[in-house]
Write a structure and sequence with these properties.
Elements: E1 2-3, H1 14-31, E2 33-41, E3 44-51, H2 56-74, E4 90-91, H3 93-105, H4 107-110, H5 128-132, H6 142-146, H7 153-164, H8 172-177, E5 180-183, E6 186-189, E7 203-206, H9 209-221, H10 232-247, H11 262-279, H12 283-290, H13 294-311, H14 316-326
Parallel strand pairs: 4-7
Antiparallel strand pairs: 1-3, 2-3, 5-6, 5-7
Helix pairs in contact: 1-2, 10-11, 10-14, 11-12, 11-13, 12-13
Length: 328
Amino acid sequence: MARGVGKHPLFDDDQDMDVFTNRLVRCIQQTGTSIFAWVLMPNHLHLLTRTDGESLSKFMQKLLTGHAVYYNMRHERVGHLFQNRFKSILVQAEEYLLSLVRYIHLNPLRAGLVRFPDHLESYRWSGHRALIHPRSLQWINRKEVLDCFSGNESGKIDAYLEYLEEDKSDPEYLLTNGSFIVNSKGLVSTESSLPGPVNRSGFPLLGSREFGLSVLKQLRGSDAGSSRVRTPVHQVITSLVILIEDYWRIPAGSLRSGGRRDSIVEAREVLSYLLVDTIGLTFSDSGHIVGLSRQGVSDAAERFRVRMRSESSIYKQLLHHAYEIIGQ
């Protein structure tokens, strides 16, 4: 799940949605990710995925960062587009696959974008039409969804359509927040944590307690803590720092040195902008990378935004290389 910052639109028109969908297909092909259900709404999106190749983080980084760069350039906008990092929930497929397919594909109906369930077929920006028309979208994993129903192809489609209109027994809170949170304390029920404060460290999980305990056992039994693996985001940041240092011919590590040479100051401004506006890092995290305070990062990024409005051609080639690294 991903939302626009401050409920800002992610898609202004069909062109934005079409460009995003094309990017989604490319990311699927590049990472080996499977899609079971999806929907694009004006200010948020839902994807039901299984990562069969590269990590979910890399898939989402390519998808969301690329769209943020495209959207801001097309609509002459600056700043964050997405609200924080995307939200992901590990799902026990046997229990919740169909519930999530239904919840995701009914979004346009709940939002009033279509009036009746049988009008969902006309909404182009979801996986619903692909489930009932096999030639609609070849990249959605419709077989695994329809195989949850019995009968021949036609009977499975009819059963799926009937299922959409059944009473929904799973509350929205459960489907969008998970049933448990897995963290250092073990398995914490999200429902038992309400209405008081919730410890959100760790990651949410949607499934039975037995499923959660099996996941926890796997995590505790792994040696993941003994060796640090560079995440895709870390790799991108490292590559951006090298790009900026090479562009201004700055010695490695000089960005954090506190130097005030014009080249170093300008390099910090560009890097601050890329870290904050395109990758979505916090001012604090960006500050550790560029050697500035939180306010310093904010000011540096803003100075570059202002410069971009009048001198965009100067940085066109540099930003092109940066966006290639980020994953546009």
